[in-house]
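Anyone able to model this chain together with uracil?
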Amino acid sequence: MDKSLDKSRILAEMGLKPVWRLRQPPVSAPHATQDAEAAIEPVAASPVDRAISAAQATSAPVESSPVAATQQRSGIAGLDWDGLASTVSACRACGLCEKRKQAVLGVGDRQADWMFVGEGPGAEEDERGEPFVGQAGKLLDAMLEAASLKRGENVYITNAVKCRPPGNRTPEAIEIATCRPYLERQIELVQPKLLIALGRPAAQILLGRELSIASARRKVHRYAIGDIPVVVTYHPAYLLRTLPDKAKAWEDLCFAMDQIALAG
Ligand code: URA
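re: yes, here you go
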């Protein structure tokens, strides 16, 4: 199929016609470096850290005491991919394990430059064991294709929590915090050039602070462990409900492409 026709169809499907083009070649983004400087934030004592401490202090229904949580974190830090996969599939560290069919670790190229982090598996992901395979996933795939990317080829996709929150609710801070060591280990193993946070929960766990997508877009943030650039954009499920913001998501993807180009 003619590539340009194909791309045009994808952009139409994303609701992005007329076709968006970069006004200047990648590597422009002069504001990116300034924003990068301004956006560096420590991850210590983030809202999720506070949430996990509070829950532990009030004996919330999480199997971990503060000591167990520390052990869990340090054990996970040394795992290879196989160890991580088996630990995640057997994980019972928070209440999400009760209703899941299976834990969903992630999918794609384990040495990818691009790493996308969503919120948590939905019903189809829980069924199939792969992130972003439902409607939101179809949109994500279309967005990837529009950026000449493909699931599994230089792209790794995962979620902030590995088990489906019942009824597809937003994962709670304690659940995200409990699952964080798995995400941290995945990032450490993949060592991406760029992290893309899809939606607020993913952005908050990666940046360790509360934020709004509107204020965090179009800036280069830093994931403190490894000093990896982070770009924040809307969650595809939100975009399916809010069509006008698809154009902003495309801008964010173009901005992300600039950052990858800058990273060399
Ligand atoms: N939404 C997410 O955040 N992740 C998925 O895997 C599917 C839908």
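The longest strand covers residues 228-233.
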